[in-house]
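Handout, page 2. Input:
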Amino acid sequence: MASVGREAAAQWERGGGASGLGFAGRYSPCSATMASSGEEMSSGSPGRASSDTEPPGPEPAATCAAQLDGAEDFEVLEEDEDDLSELPPLEDVGRARGPLREDAQSSEQGPGEAAEDPQEWLDVLGSGLLKKKTLVPGQGVESRPRKGQEVTVRLRATLEDGNVVEENPSLTFILGDCDVLQALDLCVQLMEMGETALIMSDAKYCYGAQGRSPDIPPNAALTLEVELLEARDAPDLELLSGREKIGLANRKRERGNFYYQQADYVLAINSYDIALKVISSSSKVDFTPDEEAELLDVKVKCLNNLAASQLKLDHYEAALKSCNLVLEHQPGNIKALFRKGKVLAQQGEYREAIPILKAALKLEPSNKTIHAELSKLVKKHADQKTVETEMYRKMLGNPSASSAPVKCKDKLTWSIPWKWLFGATAIALGGVALSVVIAARN
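Output:
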């Protein structure tokens, strides 16, 4: 069983995914994003349910709620950066994996069950925070679903006290796209068709420190009972109609907004990347002008939100690229102008940032945030120029500013008598020459 755990963890880490810096790309699994970035992943709602299922709606986190516009887009401008000092430390998923503590193994058991043999549990990530146990065997390893497939599962989620917080007889999602809880997305990849499994997950791979109001408290571990019902190839993006493509892109964008609310900017970037991939994919179906315009609108929103997430991670070059892509489509987009100015300011490029913020202020003169940011940059630029001027004066050995006017005054006092003397001499010589000419004529 230990070898199976190592094989599963190795398989999880080998998956490809988004780099977290750009906007273009491919369907990238959240597990690969976590392995490549080393960022801690908070998790999302159980996922995008099929049309007959009503998905849960998590409440926005208090620190990020003000930055979303009715769950559709971020506010035009952000306030001061969030204080991330209270977030849990990042997890290095590549570190050496140790065995589970005996006390942790003995205390973990399914709801309503006696203590189970700890050897029956598969430690999925080797950290003891995510474990899976098979209750009903499936159809064999070869029947496991692949990343990128559309899967349907039966889900039942309970808290440690046994209270049921989620029941869904037919939950459908794209495997590896981080559309559901990380605990579910990671473990379903290890399930066989027809298998029923019990998953015990730390809060980190469920709803994290925010929880889900009102039924899931913060930092709550969950036990998931999952049955894999179906796995099939995901819909071909080239064959989607305009409305279908718009709907899919919007779902991915809204998932990114959810992760942004959870302060999980790596997974937010991953979701925006996937939405942009859907929008930019080629199509064999003709779209109406209205559908083309709506797709462009979704693209601009994704790029703007992508830039906001990249700014949170200090990925300035990537954020600048995202802002420039927005401005190519909409040169007067205030969000993109503001964030571009902010990126340039973070890079110390005050001379370039100030006119960009002035352009944003011209579009919305009453915006106090732009006023404050612009005033701050103007002061920083003035201070920067003062420091540079003093540095150049010292490098070139120029005299101090206090002695310069005195020397100029001295030069002025000496220059006046010399000019007067030269003029008087010239007049005298001219008079002598005139006298000689007159005498010669006589």
